[in-house]
Structure formats: C-alpha cells, structure tokens
C-alpha cells in the first residue's frame, strides 16, 4: 500500500551528493530516506538505479508524493541512471504538479518509459543522453495530460518513439535534440 504523509515544511531545497560507484542503490536509498521533502536535489556519480520511489526494504510502504520537485544532476561523465534491480525500469515521473529536472547525465534502459511528465508535472531534460539497451522500451521521453518539459542538448537513441506527447502535452526545445534508431522520432496526439 501507499504510505500517507505530508511534505516537510519550508521552501528550501535539500541537496545530497550521491556516489553510486560501489552501491547502485545509493540514489534510491537517499531518496527514500528523504521522500517527504518538498524540493530535493541529487548530485550523482556512477551508475545509479532509477525507479527511486520503489522501497528497498521488504514491508516498507511505497509513497507517491504530490507536488514534489526532484533534481538529478551528474557530477561527472560517469553519472548514469540505469534500470532498478527490483523493477527492471528507470520509471522517473513528474506528476500531480511535481517536477523532474535531469541534467548532465546518461539514462540507459530496457524498461518501458524512463522519463515522463504527466498531470501538470513539469521539468527539464538538459544535456542528457537517453538510450535503450535492449527490450521493448516505448519512448525516451513521454509527456501526457498537461505535463510540460523543456528539452535541450538531448540525444535519444533506440526507442519505438523518441519523444511521445499525448492529451495536452507541452514540449519545448531549448537546444539541440538528436533522435536516432527509432520507429517514430516525435509522436504527438491531441497536444
């Protein structure tokens, strides 16, 4: 079940340096220890598991935090988000008015949708490479139901659709976007 709690007070951003070099779950562990923080920023090194909201401890309740803003930035060229060992996905969503801001890193997945913005979620993907390693991954970036995202200096490789927008998606380019080895580069429906 979902854990029910409110966000922590205050408008400041809590910042964490996360080294996943020896422990790919370090980003998930740092997020879960602070999951009710309104604005949370991670500076990562190494290959970190995505799908950070999935509990790492058996019996721990899952949480969906409405309005939370998450920043994940790479500290160096090793910064990579990879499929979570528990779910096989990266599955990072900005939803219910929350934000997701990715910068200066790589995303490598075989899961369905690694990066998504939905239900008035907002954010940006800047200087990021998103690649499918294998599997049936649908879209590198998926935006739906009023989600809004800025994309700049993005490389997307190996998906069914590079960028997919549905039902009121707002996608803005603020830099180069390269989409290769996909069936459909950009797919927009009712957006």
How does this model look, in words?
The chain contains one helix and 15 strands; from the N terminus they run βαββββββββββββββ. The N terminus is likely disordered. It starts with 12 loop residues before the first strand and ends with a strand. Strands 1, 2, 3, 4, 5, 7, 9, 11, 13 and 14 form a ten-stranded parallel beta sheet that branches. The chain has a five-stranded parallel beta sheet with strand order 6-8-10-12-15, with no helix packed on it. It is globular, with a radius of gyration of 16 Å. It has 191 residues and is mainly beta.
Give the CA-CA distance, first to last residue: 33 Å
What fraction of residues sit in β-strands? Answer: over 45%
The helix-and-strand class reads mainly beta
The tally of strands reads 15
Order of helices and strands: EHEEEEEEEEEEEEEE
Care to give the gist of this entry?
By secondary structure, the protein is mainly β. The chain contains 1 helix and 15 strands.
Topology:
Layout: E1 13-19, H1 26-33, E2 39-45, E3 47-49, E4 69-74, E5 80-82, E6 92-94, E7 99-109, E8 115-117, E9 122-132, E10 139-144, E11 148-157, E12 161-166, E13 170-173, E14 177-180, E15 184-189
Parallel strand pairs: 1-2, 2-4, 3-5, 4-7, 5-7, 6-8, 7-9, 8-10, 9-11, 10-12, 11-13, 11-14, 12-15
Give a quick set of tags describing it.
single chain, 191 residues, mainly beta, five-stranded parallel β-sheet, 1 helix, 15 strands, 47% strand, disordered N terminus
């Amino acid at each position: 079940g979902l854990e029910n709690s409110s966000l922590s007070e205050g408008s400041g951003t809590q910042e964490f340096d996360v080294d996943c070099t020896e422990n790919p779950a370090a980003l998930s562990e740092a997020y879960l220890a602070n999951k009710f923080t309104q604005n949370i920023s991670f500076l990562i090194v190494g290959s970190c598991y995505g799908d950070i909201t999935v509990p790492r401890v058996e019996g721990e309740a899952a949480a969906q935090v409405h309005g939370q803003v998450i920043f994940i930035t790479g500290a160096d060229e090793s910064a990579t988000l990879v499929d979570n060992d528990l779910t096989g996905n990266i599955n990072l969503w900005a939803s219910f008015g929350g934000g997701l801001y990715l910068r200066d890193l790589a995303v490598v997945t075989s899961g369905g949708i690694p990066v998504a913005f939905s239900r008035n979620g907002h954010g940006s993907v800047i200087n990021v490479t998103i690649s499918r390693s294998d599997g049936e991954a649908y879209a590198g970036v998926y935006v739906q139901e009023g989600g809004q995202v800025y994309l700049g200096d993005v490389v997307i490789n190996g998906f069914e659709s590079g960028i997919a927008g549905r039902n009121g998606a707002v996608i803005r380019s603020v830099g180069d976007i390269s989409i290769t080895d996909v069936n459909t580069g950009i797919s927009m429906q009712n957006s």
